[in-house]
Known about the structure:
There is one protein chain. By secondary structure, the protein is mostly helical. 62% of the residues lie in helices and 0% in strands. It has helices at residues 9-18, 22-29, 33-40, 44-51, 59-72. Helix 3 packs across helix 4. The mean pLDDT is 75.
Amino acid sequence: MNKFPYMSLKILQNCWEKGMKIKELRDLTGMSQSTFAAYFGISVRNIQEWEQERKQPPPYLVSLLKRILDNEYFNNGN
Length: 78
């Protein structure tokens, strides 16, 4: 079952190559801020601050999110 119904493999791969912001990533998953935060174990406040560009997420975090999505979305035959 596709956990991220609004994403297509090609769109997500292109976004990763170009450098994606947290909001763009969340929008592609179709998750609300609170669902996205809970799914990844990140506070809603951090998600809000990153999306409003008050703060930047650490580069390693974006890489970790990519790995999680790659493992849970791409490797499930979606």
